[in-house]
Design a protein that fits this description.
Chain lengths: 286, 427, 302
């Protein structure tokens, strides 16, 4: 696919190429401009610069980053990574099974099951807090990793299942049949045939789950508000204080945000190729 | 086909390995033994208080250290709550509602006293009342009482100031109408906004509105909160003043989305003639390196509608003892000490510019302009009624009067809704 | 066809489960996990909503009184309207921009990796930060957008309609990448040769898009629309941080938060939560019926 597209690109007239370049530039500005604002603000020092609308109003320095690191932000990064990672693993693992069942296997009243799966994640999150807090407290799950990744998995499973089911359903059945006839069990057919072909969907679901868990705030601030051993990055950022009452520490907040976003960008850079990996490995064309 | 699959197999093995690592890390990660039990037994007290001063280097830490020196067998440890008062209340509420013993001493906002005590979350402080009442500013003391009982010991206070530009105004006017005229006139000459304050839809707006309402002679309840004394006409006057100010240009553009920091930033950048704000802004705006108005402003009591006296809203924090604490006696001693020890109260002022609640400290510190003005203003500062339904009342005022001053609703109707609601709180 | 596959292993003499039993086995972990964690708060809220409260103190059984009071409350209907306006405009805009992004992200050109990462940046920034950032930029003081656009003192957040615009704009900026991601993954399942034969047949780019891409993308589109809609119906952080619900931007979740956290009344809060839940579930079920048909068609006897 890549070569064909590249060949076509070469044949396009210059006006189209300029138009395309302009569009790309527009996209970059639209998406990245606020991020640039974040970086610029995080590098500013002193009250006046921070609150000035002028992006290039100095003085500049790395003070805010130092201050963020001094607040043991590294622990928060580790906590968020572990919690989001575990959530993703569990979601994909058990979600893929359920998705396969929904896409391929006979289930009575399938629509009912789908609606039930969806319903779980629909309750207004803020109303979940009081009952969950009491139960978590009784079970000793406050300020623990499981206390967070268990509910995260539960609430992200619906999205994962829906994404993966649509992917599994779109894979032609003959491939699976062929594998079965060759002697594979249902599980092997799933593992060796379906899963690789649904790779784009799996990676999309994985990224979505990871980011959702990483950015979650409400439950994290309820179940692990202050303990540095479990506190996530979003809660830590919200807890930054200025030097006096009422003062909003925009400098440290934006610095922490930049620190938090950069690993995510790296992650997406690595995985974006997976999401757009074509169907080349022994797939449809064969 | 096999070629592709072995490639996949390698990848899959890698994925499985990563997964296994993650799961192992998650399960064995350095999580503490479920639930924090540092405060049980051993006489350690936990102080749940938030904000900038509770963070490392803040004055609350200094106070805690002072206590620990004199009381080594009942040391106190700060559990740092978030910066915003609403978040602090939420975290305290979750724990107290579950009747947990995680916290011993609670840093409570002056407006939470009635709510917390009615919910059965606080230990009565009647037995240590006498000493505290003797040394505290009356308004601050009142803010810790409900139903005639003392539930929270005053710790630090707050009152609203009028900030004005000394290079543009010699003497700040003493009535709101005059302030409006002077402000608009100078604002036009200088090309800046006449006035900034807190006009967004939140508690700060209610504070600003109450300051107008009270300074026009209005009241909410009588002394023992058994009767509603709300005056509709005065309330309409206050609301109409705000509406005219917004439409007529006395208020800066964007006044209706401003909170404390937005107002301070505007004044600090030299974009306003007058400002209503808390004392915290004084030190920040006098910083030569940061502020465009350093040395060019001063503070004064807020004006009234009548021209005599001054009224400002009382803010601040009190210390209360949790009803579920396992160490109530020590906790009570701590809150008593924090309220009545002159050294503690002075440290609050000198180290952090937090207005103390101990009256005598103001005489000591009358050199400091902020403290001097506070000493002048605090006796007349009115607390918002620390009724259990204060949050309800505040939200009702926000919902009714905010649209009215923005011109989206009739003032008379809005005001009578507030009156009806106040009536319903007494039944 | 399915029965053939089911028969194959048995013919080989391998012990295996019937497909129906297998389905149950595969579904159980998910269903159990979700039920255990997410079901009890919903039931708890429903039970709670049947009791009357004065503040936090219980006043006894109230039956459906909390509900009748909620439904006759003007604020409830204002919140419904605000929520619907927000949802329809933001989801529509996100869908169109997201589809555009997805089509671009799928193409092969130099720098596509960086472009794809750039497109995802708005979405990976935590919501509370985005909200504060856009609040700062929209607010008339210090007036960032006003300076850039040269429009003086326009009070974006302080007037009706424009306040809603600011929130919708922020949400679209933030979430279009999420839609793009889902649609992009969906685009990947469309085999290239279909386009090839269409091109050979002389179909234009637009015809290829309209007659091939869109229909084949239907499942992914439905999933994206479904989850964006149910999320938009429960939006809380954006209006809370940017406008505090003023000027017609108070959404249903804000109303719930008011009665669960701000002025706690467990009965009223639970009633509003349940009403919101029913509304969102209703919308979700409509989507699911469309989606379900896709799945039902793909399994014989399903």
């Amino acid at each position: 696919m890549g070569e064909q597209q590249a060949a076509i690109v070469e044949r396009r007239p210059p006006i189209q190429r300029i138009g395309k370049a302009l569009m790309l530039m527009l996209i970059f500005i639209w998406c990245l401009f606020p991020f640039f604002w974040l970086i610029s603000t995080s590098l500013k020092l002193g009250n006046e610069a921070l609150n000035s609308p002028d992006l290039f109003h100095g003085p500049f320095g790395l003070q805010n980053y130092k201050s963020v690191i001094e607040q043991d932000f590294g622990f928060n990064l580790r906590n968020s990574a572990i919690i989001a990672g575990t959530t993703t693993v569990f979601c994909i693992a058990i979600g893929a099974l359920a998705a396969y069942a929904l896409a391929r296997l006979p289930i009575k009243r399938k629509i009912l099951v789908l609606a039930g799966v969806l319903a779980v994640s629909l309750f207004p999150p803020v109303a979940l807090v009081p009952p969950m807090y009491e139960v978590w407290r009784t079970l000793g799950l406050l300020n623990t990793y499981p206390g967070l990744y268990i509910p995260y998995t539960a609430f992200t499973l619906p999205l994962t299942i829906f994404i993966l089911s649509t992917f599994f359903a779109s894979i032609p059945k003959d491939l699976e049949e062929a594998a079965r006839i060759d002697g594979a069990t249902a599980f092997q057919a799933f593992w060796k045939v379906i899963l690789p072909l649904a790779a784009p969907g799996v990676f999309a679901a994985a990224i979505i789950t990871f980011v959702a868990a990483w950015n979650e705030f409400l439950l994290a601030s309820t179940f692990a508000p202050r303990d540095k051993a479990v506190q996530t990055v979003t809660v830590a950022i919200a807890a930054f204080t200025g030097s006096v009452q009422f003062e909003r520490p925009i400098g440290t907040i934006t610095a922490a945000c930049v620190i938090v976003t950069i690993p995510m960008i790296i992650l997406t850079l690595i995985f974006q190729r997976r999401i757009v990996a074509g169907l080349t490995t022994g797939g449809v064309k064969g | 086909m096999t070629g592709g699959f072995s490639g996949n197999r390698r990848k899959r093995l890698l994925n499985v390995a990563v997964v296994a690592l993650l799961v192992a890390a998650a399960c064995t990660g350095s999580t503490p033994d479920g639930g924090d039990d540092g405060g049980e037994g051993g006489g350690e007290l936990v102080w749940a208080i938030g904000g900038a001063e509770a963070a490392p280097g803040g004055v609350h830490r200094t106070v805690a250290e002072m206590w620990n020196e004199e009381n080594p067998d009942t040391p106190i440890r700060i559990e740092v709550l978030p910066d915003a008062a609403d978040e602090q209340r939420q975290q305290q509420s979750l724990e107290l509602n579950a009747q947990g013993d995680l916290f011993d001493v609670l840093g409570v906002d002056v407006i939470w006293t009635g709510e917390y005590s009615t919910n059965g979350w606080l230990e009565s402080l009647e037995d240590i009342r006498a000493d505290i009442e003797q040394v505290s500013i009356p308004g601050a003391f009142e803010s810790g009482t409900w139903g005639g009982e003392l539930w929270a010991a005053p710790y630090n206070s707050n009152a609203g100031f009028l900030y004005y530009r000394t290079d543009l105004v010699d003497e700040p006017p003493t009535t709101w109408e005059e302030l409006s005229q002077v402000g608009i006139q100078i604002g036009e000459e200088e090309g800046i906004a006449p006035f900034v304050g807190q006009g967004a839809k939140y508690e700060g707006f209610v504070v600003n509105w109450l300051e107008y309402y009270w300074s026009a002679g209005g009241e909410l309840y009588n002394e023992d909160s058994s009767q509603v004394l709300f005056d509709d006409d005065i309330a309409v006057q206050a609301t109409e003043f705000m509406r005219e100010s917004l439409e007529g240009g006395f208020y800066a553009p964007g006044f209706n989305t401003m909170m404390e920091e937005e107002a301070r930033n505007e004044f600090q950048s030299g974009n306003a003639v007058f400002m209503r704000n808390w004392p915290y802004a004084y030190a920040l705006m006098n910083d030569e390196a940061e502020s465009k108005v350093a040395g060019k402003f001063d503070i004064a009591p807020l004006p009234t509608f009548s021209g005599t006296g001054t009224i400002s809203a009382l803010g601040g924090f009190n210390n209360a003892v949790s009803a579920f604490s396992s160490n109530k006696e020590a906790a009570k001693q701590f809150v008593l000490w924090a309220s009545t020890d002159p050294e503690v109260q002075q440290t609050l002022a000198t180290e952090a510019s937090l207005p103390p609640t101990m009256a005598s400290v103001y005489e000591e510190l009358s050199d400091d302009p902020v403290m001097a003005l506070l000493g002048q203003v605090l006796p007349d500062a009115k607390p918002r009624p620390p009724a259990p339904q204060w949050n309800d009342i505040s939200v009702t005022i926000q919902e009714e009067i905010f649209p009215a001053y923005n011109g989206d609703a009739e003032a008379a109707g809005a005001v009578s809704e507030v009156h009806n609601f106040l009536n319903s709180t007494i039944e | 066809m399915a029965s053939e596959a089911a028969r194959a292993p048995r013919v080989e003499g391998r012990r295996s489960l019937s497909n129906a039993a297998l389905a149950k086995l595969f579904l159980t972990p998910s269903v159990a996990w979700m039920a255990l964690v997410a079901l009890f708060p919903v039931l708890y809220a429903f039970v709670l909503s049947l009791y009357l409260y004065q503040g936090r103190l219980s006043e006894g059984f109230g039956g459906l009184e909390n509900y009748t009071e909620a439904i006759t409350d003007d604020r409830f209907w204002s919140a419904v309207i605000a929520t619907l306006v927000f949802t329809v405009t933001s989801v529509a805009a996100e869908f169109m921009i997201g589809l555009g992004f997805a089509l671009i992200m799928r193409q092969a050109f130099r720098g596509r990796g960086v472009t794809r990462a750039a497109i995802l940046v708005p979405w990976v920034i935590p919501t509370v930060i985005s909200a504060q950032m856009w609040f700062f930029m929209f607010n008339v003081t210090p007036g960032f957008w006003n300076d850039v656009l040269g429009i003086g003192d326009f009070n974006w957040l302080g007037q009706p309609n424009w306040a809603m615009f600011a929130i919708v704009f922020t949400d679209v900026w933030k979430t279009a990448p999420f839609v793009a991601l889902l649609l992009l993954a969906g685009l990947q399942t469309i085999p290239e040769d279909i386009y090839e034969s269409a091109r050979v047949d002389g179909a234009t780019a637009w015809q290829r898009f309209w007659n091939l891409t869109l229909p084949l993308l239907r499942p992914a589109i439905l999933v994206a629309l479904l989850f964006r809609t149910v999320d938009a119906l429960r939006v809380f952080d954006l209006p809370q941080v940017m406008t505090q619900g003023a000027f017609g931007t108070e959404t249903l979740s804000m109303l719930v938060q008011r009665f669960v956290v701000q002025t706690p009344n467990p009965g009223t809060g639970a009633a509003f939560s349940t009403l919101t839940f029913i509304l969102v579930l209703g919308v979700g079920v409509i989507f699911v019926r469309f989606l379900g048909r896709e799945f039902v068609e793909s399994t014989a006897g399903g």
